Amino acid sequence: MVVVMDGRAPAEQVQAVISRLEECGFKAHPIHGVRRIVIGAVGDRRAISSLGLETMPGVERVVPIMKPYKLVSREAREENTVVRVGNAAIGGDGLAVCAGPCAVESREQLLEAARMVSGAGAVMLRGGAFKPRTSPYSFQGLEEEGLRLLAEAARETGLATVTEVVDEYSLNLAVQYVDVLQIGARNMQNFRLLQMVGRSGKPVLLKRGLSATVEEWLMAAEYIMSEGNGQIILCERGIRTFEQSTRNTLDLSAVPLVKSLSHLPVIVDPSHATGDRKLVGPMARAAVAAGADGLLIEVHPDPGKALCDGPQSLTPAQFAALMEELRAVAAAVGRAA
Amino acid sequence: MVVVMDGRAPAEQVQAVISRLEECGFKAHPIHGVRRIVIGAVGDRRAISSLGLETMPGVERVVPIMKPYKLVSREAREENTVVRVGNAAIGGDGLAVCAGPCAVESREQLLEAARMVSGAGAVMLRGGAFKPRTSPYSFQGLEEEGLRLLAEAARETGLATVTEVVDEYSLNLAVQYVDVLQIGARNMQNFRLLQMVGRSGKPVLLKRGLSATVEEWLMAAEYIMSEGNGQIILCERGIRTFEQSTRNTLDLSAVPLVKSLSHLPVIVDPSHATGDRKLVGPMARAAVAAGADGLLIEVHPDPGKALCDGPQSLTPAQFAALMEELRAVAAAVGRAA
Amino acid sequence: MVVVMDGRAPAEQVQAVISRLEECGFKAHPIHGVRRIVIGAVGDRRAISSLGLETMPGVERVVPIMKPYKLVSREAREENTVVRVGNAAIGGDGLAVCAGPCAVESREQLLEAARMVSGAGAVMLRGGAFKPRTSPYSFQGLEEEGLRLLAEAARETGLATVTEVVDEYSLNLAVQYVDVLQIGARNMQNFRLLQMVGRSGKPVLLKRGLSATVEEWLMAAEYIMSEGNGQIILCERGIRTFEQSTRNTLDLSAVPLVKSLSHLPVIVDPSHATGDRKLVGPMARAAVAAGADGLLIEVHPDPGKALCDGPQSLTPAQFAALMEELRAVAAAVGRAA
Amino acid sequence: MVVVMDGRAPAEQVQAVISRLEECGFKAHPIHGVRRIVIGAVGDRRAISSLGLETMPGVERVVPIMKPYKLVSREAREENTVVRVGNAAIGGDGLAVCAGPCAVESREQLLEAARMVSGAGAVMLRGGAFKPRTSPYSFQGLEEEGLRLLAEAARETGLATVTEVVDEYSLNLAVQYVDVLQIGARNMQNFRLLQMVGRSGKPVLLKRGLSATVEEWLMAAEYIMSEGNGQIILCERGIRTFEQSTRNTLDLSAVPLVKSLSHLPVIVDPSHATGDRKLVGPMARAAVAAGADGLLIEVHPDPGKALCDGPQSLTPAQFAALMEELRAVAAAVGRAA
User: Fold this and answer.
1) In this complex, which chains have at least 3 CB pairs below 8 Å with chain C?
2) Distance from A89 to chain B by nearest Cα, in Å?
3) Distance between CA D216 and CA D188 in Å, rounded?
4) Which of A54, A109, A137 to mutate to test the interface with B (most CBs of B within 10 A)?
5) Is A192 near chain C, with CB under 8 Å?
6) Residues of C in contact with A75 (CB under 8 A)
7) Where are the extended beta strands (E) located within chain B?
8) Interface of A with B in 53-72 (CB under 8 A)
9) Which of A265, A324, B157, C97 is the most exposed place for a label (fewest CB within 10 A)?
10) What is the dihedral of CA A242, A246, A249, A250, to 10 degrees?
11) Whole-number pLDDT of residue B48
């Protein structure tokens, strides 16, 4: 940590900051510049809830040097984490594709989707049973019945399953039926929920919040990992920006960036990011080329009848064609698919 | 709702859209333009989960005409909602100021803060007992002990109390001790929590999410109100933008805008919005001038020792001086204070 | 400046950075922490185009300590700059209101607007003769004829005049007719234009770019001032954010922030910021309460017939009523109006 | 265009809107809904500077149906525009890579860069002679001497050349020396400059402004094309968002989106977008996979000594390796390279 002080600060003010730092276990190294005094503080800032330095007289600002996350960082673990679930391995040499409908709507819909995405090469099945919807008047999910259908689809196809949990109730149900628990973008900083999935023993798919910085996203993963659960798959799904011609702005640079900062696998959801079926294919290919470990893609047997996110869902035929393209791109960047 | 179709779409495609609309209870009015066909659809879009129109051949986009919220809208209720709690009335003629520390840290700290803000003219006391923190290693709040202290401070000073709830557990405790339940910015779209506070019977202070649009914010209020609870205080607390020289960007225009769209009272939190003590005063004055019904201000007996948000907390003396200024501005805009 | 290096960087890499710093005239102070090496560098970073430190082996990042602007900073000049033009003084004790139509459209329109805003208490007249329009098919301004009308209106009413310049041609004409040259938001980083107005000898009204940080805005002012022209009025006019329910997001916090960082006066344009007539009044009042030195307000004799920005223009009667309100708020915050 | 009116608006107000529309040559189709009246207006909105509808009594909002651009749209021209310059074709079957230093610094630097990027397969050379810099104290470019060096490098290597122009002066010089004129992000809405390059007879590389919407970007291209110059290459270079861990947020979805809306070629600049050498490769590969027609990449013989943008410049060896990777990705998506 570096404390920047006004160069005109009297010696007592500088001394007060140094004393405060030493009191908290830091070693202080003051450097007197022309117009500023800079105090380098050696020690671990993350151990201390609040130093109150910013409010001390003469202090202009405090610049943290260390990243605030520990367990999820590359410094804590150099090799990649590979999350294994059923036949799927996320974060390894291959590309892991998870596909399925936004919401589980019926037995027919889900089983048909499951068979088709499995046949086209997906290794995981997604499907929402508890849907966080912007409007209280929208379809909110089949709840336990949806979970049961996911389990049935898994038995039939051998796909691993992913579903979103939104609170303690849905979590307690989901752990009985599915393989991976998803934390949705709107709950990325629902810290209680993060702690609960951290104690669940299940792998977690953690979506980036729609206005979360990369650092906040990794801190959310740190919440989970600090509860003892390191089986975390990060999922970039677009951020909110001024641009409204796509639903969100897919931040693909975050993929190589996060992979340099953390050992956790990173996948990409081009369906929610773009909100537009015709952009899903190009962005899925781009994600693979950028180094993503996998994809999360919405596929619906009949998108026009989908109870949610129809406009961004691929038909099974479109999905199968995309899988072919993805194999070619994966091979081009030296990845099995 | 208006459906925009490509002007070259064949008659069958136009007919299919019209049939789909009529099937869902709408009356369709097609208008043939030079390069586009526009179909006006009369009926209530909000009643229908999904029409799937966007995915039909020939359709370019669907433009909603009605706002998605009902109960919270000015159309549903012309007169202002006034939330009454203890001696405080939020949304009436007067200005309601809520003040106190970010977190309840100790009996001494809270009681001192309560006495001082009460003496300076605040009508509500804020204080966090369950703190959602970006880092799992930061102070997370005193929990039930904090709630007890809030209740004690209320008894001693006559202030109404506000505290944040983050899940079912904290909610069940908070209803026993405090007057108003706060939903924090990070939980604004935690729809389960919104439903729970909607059923709690307590007034709710609903902070705007840091990347929530005004419409999403009102939809979050609609979640609460659709559970039968219309005692909602909206709180603007800054949004996330590219500008990093303040912690968030206080969106003061949202105050008069929301007051034109909804009957609910709107207050402003200049402390979290700016993150900088020296900007709290000017922004508090500006909020009153813009028509805010009240303010939420962080005050700490000794900000340098605060366990969170010290840099943005006012000292009691600063708060008392600010209250004087606010009275003058309130009077200038025709408001009692 | 502080250079952060990986704690595992070998001694040669650290020495190379120190040598590079010393070569450029800095004194280097290395501090060895647990996982990072921090090198404090004393000297003036702003004098050097590029040090290339970020690309040296072992370097993680470089943290600047000094602000990049000099002449416009409070450190360079403690007292407020007051820009005087005609009877107007911007940055002094009083509130300076500039009003008028978005574009000069005709002699009748401009003279009527000028008389009315003058009668209501404005001290400056605005009116665009060269209009930067998003569409090449929109009205682009009356050019020199518009400038002549501004000069006529000035003679008749005694108002000072402001008009936007967009290139060398418009600048050379404008200096002959008007008192203050405006740099529009879209040209805030048109550095050639900034240099030209810096050499013009005329006061400059510098609008903040719609995605400019406060620092970039002050750097644009530095461009003007580094050419010898310190008569600069900064104008906050809203920034671009995800929120689309107002045209832009008025960043009022920037007013007290910039006044703490710089000695230059700051005014606010609530018309362009909100794009909505009904929000102009509340935001104008808020700007005064936040400490703005003045306002820029669009007024049109008949907004429904305006060739641009009709929806955000006040009628003369609305403007006169607003001026009354502004006087009350100004008085409440201790300002003459 | 669709005009939305309050359902309680009296018949005279509705009639007034209809009359105004008909007066301007539109045919009006009113539809009476439950709570709103919607008037469909058939005609070309783009022909009319201002209708003033938004300010008419009873009108809530006006929804445009047509895109505001004409000449650059896919509707105006179905087949792709291919810009040919020297041996390069941008927008055709192959991938066109433009590379070189941010700024022309010296004869040695530029010629070495030119030889190396040419050897690795680039078809165009970039190099700034007029540099728009945030600080007036930074290196501003070699001006005409830089242009002369670009011409020399072109003669020696056969590369086509691109350089940024910032005003009339630089434009008049650049047309004498280089093949393609670049409009930088900060000048994307410098409409005078757009008109000038539109009349220059030279191909134009138009960078997206850092907070420009896709629609505004296409409108800037429309400015150029409306002057008779359709040789336009669009360049996505990152937009400004809340995320600060990369210099900008590369909006790759804009590539397939713009290619669906317009016939113009689109290239991507991963160097300015990310500001970080280690992210340039992944984002360049992703851009090709997303369907970009080419790339703009910063390469410097010795990035550590670069006068600008060193941290994001590739070394010649890194660039050569990247070109190999790009060939593989291009082949995987069916594109020659």
Assistant:
1) A, B, D
2) 28
3) 9
4) A137
5) no
6) 35
7) 2-6, 27-32, 36-42, 59-63, 83-85, 88-90, 96-100, 124-126, 160-164, 180-183, 204-207, 232-236, 266-268, 294-298
8) 54-56, 68
9) A324
10) 180
11) 58
DSSP states of B190-243: -HHHHHHHHTS-S-EEEEPPTT--HHHHHHHHHHHHTTT---EEEEE--B--S-
**Domain ranges (residues) in chain B:** 2-63, 83-332
Interface check B321 vs C, CB under 8 A: no
Question: What mean pLDDT is predicted for residues B317-330?
Answer: 97
DSSP state at residue C103: B
Q: A86 touching C, CB under 8 A?
A: no
Helix (H, G, I), strand (E, B) or coil at B137: coil
Tell me the nearest-neighbour CA distance from C323 into chain B, angstroms: 13
Instruction: Name the amino acid, one letter, at A76.
Output: A
**Which CATH homologous superfamily contains domain C83-332?**
Aldolase class I (3.20.20.70)
Q: Give the pLDDT score at D71.
A: 96
Nearest CA in chain A to B49: A138
Q: Closest residue of B to D26, CA-based?
A: B33
Chain C residues in contact with D193 by the CB 8 A cut-off are 167
Spatial contact of A192 and B164, defined as CB atoms under 8 Å apart: no
CATH of D2-63, one of 2.40.160.20, 3.30.70.270, 3.30.420.40, 3.30.70.1140: 3.30.70.1140
Least confident of A56-70, C114-128, D36-50, D89-103: D36-50
Q: What is the mean pLDDT of each run of 10 residues along chain C (337 residues)?
A: 90 92 89 88 69 85 88 95 94 97 96 97 97 86 97 98 96 98 96 96 97 97 97 98 96 98 98 94 98 97 83 94 97 89
Neighbour tally for C177: CB within 10 Å: 18
Closest chain B residue to C216, measured at CA: B243
pLDDT tens digits, one per residue of B4-28: 999 889 999 999 999 989 988 889 9
Q: What angle do CA A220, A226, A228 make, to 5 degrees?
A: 120
Report CB contact under 8 Å: C40, A34. Answer: no
- C168 touches D at CB < 8 Å: yes
How far does D103 lie from chain B, in Å, by closest CA?
Answer: 27
Q: In angstroms, rounded to a whole number, what is the distance separating the alpha carbons of residues A224 and A313?
A: 30
Q: CA–CA separation, B280 vs B278, rounded Å? A: 6
Please identify which residue in the block is written with the tokens 């990247």.
Answer: D322
What's the mean pLDDT when you consider all of chain D?
93
The verdict on a CB contact (< 8 Å) between B249 and C241 is yes
> What ipTM was predicted for this assembly?
0.94
- Tell whether B76 lies on the interface with D, counting CB pairs under 8 A: no
Three-class secondary structure assignment of chain D: CEEEEECCCCHHHHHHHHHHHHHCCCEEEEEECCCEEEEEEECCHHHCCCCCHHHCCCEEEEECCCCCCCCCECCCCCCCCCEEECCEEECCCECEEEEECCECCCHHHHHHHHHHHHHHCCCEEECECCCCCCCCCCCCCCCHHHHHHHHHHHHHHCCEEEEECCCHHHHHHHHHHCCEEEECHHHCCCHHHHHHHHCCCCCEEEECCCCCCHHHHHHHHHHHHCCCCCCEEEEECCECCCCCCCCCECCCCHHHHHHHHECCCEEECHHHHHCCHHHHHHHHHHHHHHCCCEEEEEECCCHHHCCCCHHHCECHHHHHHHHHHHHHHHHHCCCEC
C36 touches chain A (CB under 8 A): yes
Question: Which candidate from B243, B253, B273 shows the least CB-CB separation from C213?
Answer: B243
Q: CA-based angle C246:C247:C248, to the nearest 5?
A: 90
Contact C42 A33 (CB under 8 A): yes
The distance of A46 to chain C (nearest Cα, Å) reads 13
